[in-house]
């Protein structure tokens, strides 16, 4: 039985492109491409200096239009997408909020579009790029901990930029056993195996708690002023963004501007998987936004969310079950997700709302988003309204204790 279970999980890991140890992270990302693409890597590897010296746009204008046909496998395509994404963000936002580029030159736009089509991703820097595929170990034989990790490509913002992306990566890695737990619950539901469902839920709960603890590293490695005033604009997109209200024209690809959202935590497959597993019913507008964010995920990861979404309702099964242990395991899991969302909400207030209000009072920083995106997430949502909405709908999924048990309020 154990062997069959392991084989089933292994098939799931392969089908949904998941690593048992790393979750949705790309395993062993490449840092080099064939020499033909040297110009892309030269720009991406020196991006911070080129942005700060205002030279990036000029160099992009001199770039040849390269064919992506010589990219031979998935990891080469992911590195190319990452490099072109970083260069594109740098190109668009080099001059800050008052001078965004309206057109992405053909030498960037066309190969980026073609690489994106092969990957099933949009031609913009996504969470799957900047967080899941943008890491390397300083010591290849060392552990995956923050002191031994670095970014492949970076934006202005120094240690705060590195800290923001690496801590986000470590939060994703902390979710790995929970993703396995979600798969175990999914399979146990097919045979209504109560112990398997409970065991999987416990794994998800432990992961959610570990994610919250890991998230706390953000306060040690990311300065709120640097994040808001320097880094945040470079992960901003061109949909629902007042700085680029019509979108961005991709030269050689389309005759009309294209609207695309910037990378955000709403593009995390992990959280959407847990929502689907636990049957969290978000409000219509929120659900519509989250569903659209799936278009920014690798197709295999998106498929896992959709697979979990159409499974028989775990919540309904537990409500109809007489097992108080199962009810308790589900409730603990939802509570842990509420706690994580509360923590995220408070962290966003510290890193976006407070510095944004300060910028409004003191005048906008030269390159930062100033007050333009104070209320808007990099993905285009009304930030605090969205975060409070997902927190509140998660709370509503909590199952109250049965009448025979002591009633407990959960806030």
Features:
411 residues; mainly alpha; two-stranded parallel sheet; two-stranded antiparallel sheet; 56% helix; disordered C terminus
Number of strands: 4
The largest beta-sheet arranges its strands as 1-4
In percent, how helical is the residue content? 55-70%
How big a fraction of the residues is strand? Answer: under 5%
Q: Please report the distance between the alpha carbons of the first and last residues.
A: 40 Å
What is the gyration radius calculated from CA atoms?
22 Å
Could you state the order of secondary-structure elements as H and E?
HHHHHEHHEEHHHHHEHHHHHH
Shape: globular
Q: What's the rounded overall pLDDT mean?
A: 91
Can you summarize the main beta sheet?
2 strands, parallel
Q: Which structural category fits the helices and strands?
A: mainly alpha
The number of distinct helices, counting runs of at least 4 residues, comes to: 18
Describe the protein.
The chain has a two-stranded parallel sheet with strand order 1-4. It has a two-stranded antiparallel sheet with strand order 2-3. The protein has helices spanning 2-15, 38-45, 47-52, 56-61, 74-93, 106-119, 127-130, 158-174, 176-191, 194-215, 218-221, 224-231, 269-278, 284-293, 299-309, 314-320, 324-362, 383-396; strands spanning 103-104, 135-137, 149-151, 249-250. It is an all-alpha fold. Helices cover 56% and strands 2% of the residues. The radius of gyration is 22 Å and the shape is globular.
């Amino acid at each position: 039985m154990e062997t069959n279970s392991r084989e089933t999980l292994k098939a799931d890991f392969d089908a949904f492109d998941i690593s048992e140890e790393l979750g949705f992270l790309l395993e062993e990302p490449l840092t080099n491409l064939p020499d033909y693409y040297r110009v892309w890597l030269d720009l991406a590897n020196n991006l911070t200096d080129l942005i700060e010296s205002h030279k990036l746009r000029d160099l992009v204008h001199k770039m040849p239009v390269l064919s992506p046909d010589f990219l031979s496998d998935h990891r080469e395509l992911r590195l190319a997408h990452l490099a072109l994404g970083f260069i594109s963000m740098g190109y668009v936002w080099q001059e800050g909020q008052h001078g965004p580029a309206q057109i992405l030159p053909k030498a960037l736009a066309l190969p980026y579009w073609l690489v994106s089509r092969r990957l099933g991703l949009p031609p913009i820097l996504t969470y799957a790029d900047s967080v899941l595929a943008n890491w390397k170990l300083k010591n290849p034989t060392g552990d995956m901990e923050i002191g031994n990790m670095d970014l492949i490509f970076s934006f202005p913002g120094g240690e705060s930029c590195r800290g923001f992306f690496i801590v986000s990566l470590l939060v994703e890695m902390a979710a790995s056993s929970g993703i396995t737990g979600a798969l175990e619950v999914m399979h146990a539901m097919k045979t209504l195996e109560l112990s398997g469902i409970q065991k999987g839920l416990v794994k998800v709960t432990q992961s959610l708690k570990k994610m919250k603890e890991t998230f706390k590293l953000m306060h040690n490695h990311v300065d709120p002023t640097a994040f808001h005033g320097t880094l945040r604009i470079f992960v901003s997109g061109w949909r629902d963004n007042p700085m680029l209200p019509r979108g961005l024209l991709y030269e050689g690809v389309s005759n009309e501007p294209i609207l695309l959202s910037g990378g955000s935590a709403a593009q995390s497959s992990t959280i959407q998987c847990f929502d689907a597993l636990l049957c969290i019913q978000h409000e219509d507008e929120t659900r519509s936004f989250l569903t659209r964010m799936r278009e920014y995920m690798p197709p295999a990861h998106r498929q896992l969310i959709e697979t979990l979404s159409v499974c028989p309702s775990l919540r309904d099964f537990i409500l109809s079950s007489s097992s108080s242990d199962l009810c308790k395991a589900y409730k603990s899991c939802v509570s842990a997700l509420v706690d994580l969302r509360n923590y995220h909400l408070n962290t966003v207030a510290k890193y976006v709302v407070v510095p944004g209000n300060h910028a409004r009072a003191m005048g906008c920083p030269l390159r930062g988003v100033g007050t333009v995106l104070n209320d808007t997430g990099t993905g285009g949502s009304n930030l605090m309204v969205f975060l409070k909405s997902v927190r509140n709908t998660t709370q509503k999924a909590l199952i109250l204790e049965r009448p025979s048990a002591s009633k407990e309020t959960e806030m």
